[in-house]
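User: I've been going back and forth on whether these two constructs are worth ordering. Before I decide, could you fold them both?

Assistant: Sure. I'll take them in the order you sent them. The first construct and its structure tokens:
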Amino acid sequence: MSADLTERRPYHREDLRRELLEAALGYVRDHGHHGLSVRTLAQAVGVSPGAPYHHFKDRRDLLLAIALHGYSELGAAATRASSSRATAKEKLLALCLSFIAFAQANPRLLQLMYESELTSPMADPALLAHQHAGRYALQAQLDAALPSLSEDARTLRLLALWSTVYGFAALRNKHLIDPFEPADSTPDAVARGTMILAVEAAVSLPTT
């Protein structure tokens, strides 16, 4: 068998892109994205250094594919959270908690999705589409809960709610709020209690 055929065989491995992406996702979840390289990925999967380039043009393209997979998982969780026959307020809470749960389960993946070279100085357009979809999911429930408020007023409430959700997730993942959590509670209870307060504030009607 010629050396050329031997070298090219891994390129034709069935579902190689899926294998590469699964290995990359596993690496990011365990170690973060900073040390991931195309060469590292090739070694992990057991293919030649050039094989991944048939599926990802460079490291950034690989990272983008990983982040998009994360957004797909996050979007699926949001869909499940808002697909019930619950009230708009209940769906808002479910949406917030679904994000918190994803963030806690995937802290390093979340960093890639929101705080990496893919988002600086501007978020990649492919990521923006998913971020906008998440905002629309919250917006739809706020619109349903507060039809009498102006669009500008609802937008401000959306910004406050989203800031609370993302801020809580980021602080929790960095272990910055751990010292302040009630000793007789659990992390899940703290998250739920915080999100209930945030949603209550978002949907409360003005008193004047």
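The second construct, handled the same way:
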Amino acid sequence: MPHSVEIAGAAIFCLALLHTFTTARIGGFAIKYPRHAGLFHFLAEVEVVFGFWALILCLVIWLLAGSHTAIDYLEQRKFTESLFVFVIMVIAASRPVLSLVTQAVTKLADVFPGRTEIYAIWLSLSLIPLLGSFITEPAAMTLAALLLRDRLFRENISTSVKYFGLAVLFVNISIGGVLTSFAAPPVLMVASAWGWGTPHMALTFGWRAAIAVLANATIFVLFVARHVPTSDVAGGDERQRIPLSVTLIHIMFLVLVVLNAHHAVVFIGAFLFFLGYTHAYEKYQSPLLLRESLLVAFFLGGLVVLGGLQQWWLQPVVSSMSDYMLFAGATGLTAVMDNAAITYLGSLIAGLSEQSKYFLVAGAVAGGGLTVIANAPNPAGLALVGHRFPGGVSALNLLGAAVAPTAVACLALLAL
């Protein structure tokens, strides 16, 4: 790729980052200029930002290097993860799966003395993120966000509490998926190259991450319990009893997609059969989460396109750092670059010591809650609860709220 294109790609990436921090202001233009309100509402959607600027990048490549170069570049990008997140979000958010998880969380919460909704929030911020190590982080994010949407992200709860809760959710999902070698995108990028299997992840990262997840969830509920009013969310779905066979078939589709997460031809085929099944038994279904899932896939696809031209400056930065600088640098860079991209570039660096590898991955997962773009599942959570924030989610407010839970994650991964 010509260096002029690489420079343009870095500049466009910076503009996209700036755009993510100004979406609330852009949304305000819809009131000031009602004639173009639809355009401003579109550009104010965080999930649209990277897809929009990816289009700009493609046009710039076409102008600077020709249409063949632009098409070749796009064909070299891998969009499997974006497609997987779309599919897993739709299936995980389906009514039978969500009803099963909701009932399980409610029954577990009932075991504890005190207010059920507080323990339900605690389980949604602890157990579900850790479950992400087995059902993948995007699926865990979808379930946790849906469970919390009517318990925590409500109109009568203060915005500061919501930001704190969103930050804890993002951080815990990012670190909660490292008990295995296949569920967290930043781990997946290096597991094969470095020979890291699930036993290695569980013994090296997993127990530390689990302690941080439990600590973050516990600290959160201790601080905000008095701000959470009594919830009227039912533990089950009373509209139509869902037969066990229907629930089991939905779980079967979920497992099939998770097991074939790296094979788009398989999980897309399974998804088409899933759509047919939900249509055949639509009386047991709610409207599928297609719009939100498509927006998330659009966001991640745009990030893939934009991120592909950042290696020329990002890899030298990563390779020049000492171990502790590597941890701090990976954590900080994750705020402006998807953590899977950070670890992928690290896997290309020859001669990294085992300690350096640990610090790189630990920093990348610890910083996964700092921004919406820091971890691939974050846009999924934002798509499900973002509308519960007046004026949309502010990137600066999220960054500020994420400092404390990120510090807990860093402390657990460094000091334990």
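Notes on the second construct follow. The chain has two domains: 3-76, 81-415. The chain has a mean pLDDT of 89.
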